[in-house]
Amino acid sequence: MLEQLASGGSVSQQNLADLISHLEGGLRRRLHDLAHKARITAYGTAVYLRGLIEFSNICKQNCLYCGLRSGNRTLSRYRLLPEEILDCCREGYALGYRTFVLQSGEDDWYTTDKLVRLITSVKQQFPDAALTLSVGERDDESYTRLYAAGADRFLLRHETASAPLYRALHPTMEYAERRDRLRALQRIGYQVGAGFMVGLPGQTAADLADDLLYLQELQPDMIGIGPFLPHRDTPLRDEQPGTVENTLDMIALARLMVPDALIPATTAMGTAHPNGRERALQAGANVLMPNLSPMSVRAKYMLYNNKICTGDESAQCRFCLEQRVKSAGFHVDMGRGDSLKHLSRSLQEQ
Ligand code: SAH
Ligand code: SF4
């Protein structure tokens, strides 16, 4: 079945779920090895760096797993002003970054008008940099205006492809709407990132198979996969975290099933294990997202406990990651790093 997946074949949900529940030892090594080869074929040894700016931890949603959920009254909230965000971009640009990812909770203070002005300024000042948004669900009109203002990419994980699990975890959001928003982003023209958490309470091998099959159907440009990590001020505080091993398997399967996607070695992977990100790079991941947020707010963007890199300067993160990339056998590429899917779409349009 691994060979079948590696050669672009399709598999049934049942067979994929069986495979997922039997991955260990030699089979697991074979999977990671095939994923590594698929990544080399698609992107070589390049690892793309994106400067992440966590610009607001204020959120109107109430996702059960997340430390930023509106129900968490103990969190000290912050919001960076547009000028402060531009300062982060300036620092990042000087460090060589050519992609900025602006991420936040669903914070309505940042209206479409305000975001349009911000995006316009970023693109004016740094015209050769790509801009990625990760600000949650908005309507078509808003997404369209943000794209027209110059946003190139959008990260919106589908979180889980299981409808019952999605409903249990998202009291303020709709499963069908999440998928509809992802399709809307694609229609509008963004390079789109979907993805999911591994090891959510109650998640089964069949659910994970559905996550992978959904990605294969959606064909996103980017795929973010990380372990679920409990946060002490959420209802899931006592649940078991997702494991590095299972997450690596999902990264590797995602690489085989959507070979030309950009796949980050996530901060959650680095939090779950000191070498989690390096191991993700060796199992098919090819992107890192070092933090560019001001030091004063880092510790407040706590999606889960023990999040790493909250005490490092941006420059330190940049060089720490470069070392890690090299030690894992890859090289840093500071270019925009557009997805191959996007590049082939652009060629077709010409
Ligand atoms: N509000 C936006 C972006 C910020 S949250 C959004 O929800 O799209 C970014 C991602 O963090 C989420 O998509 C989720 O997958 C991840 N996340 C949140 N809480 C987490 C936790 N406890 N463990 C692991 N990942 C988590
Ligand atoms: Fe808000 Fe995103 Fe956290 Fe959900 S995952 S509570 S939308 S920040």
From TrEMBL:
UniProt-annotated binding residues for (3R)-3-methyl-D-ornithine: S134
Coiled coil: none
One Gene Ontology biological process: sulfur compound biosynthetic process
Binding site for S-adenosyl-L-methionine: E159, R178, L229
Pfam families per record: Radical_SAM
Cofactor(s) needed: [4Fe-4S] cluster; [2Fe-2S] cluster
Domain Radical SAM core residue range list: 45-266
UniProt KW keywords: 4Fe-4S, Iron, Iron-sulfur, Metal-binding, S-adenosyl-L-methionine
Listed Gene3D superfamilies: Aldolase class I
Annotated GO MF terms: 4 iron, 4 sulfur cluster binding; metal ion binding; transferase activity
PANTHER family per the UniProt record, alphabetical: 3-METHYLORNITHINE SYNTHASE, BIOTIN SYNTHASE
Name of protein: [FeFe] hydrogenase H-cluster radical SAM maturase HydE
Taxonomic classification: Bacteria, Bacillati, Bacillota, Bacilli, Bacillales
Underlying gene: hydE
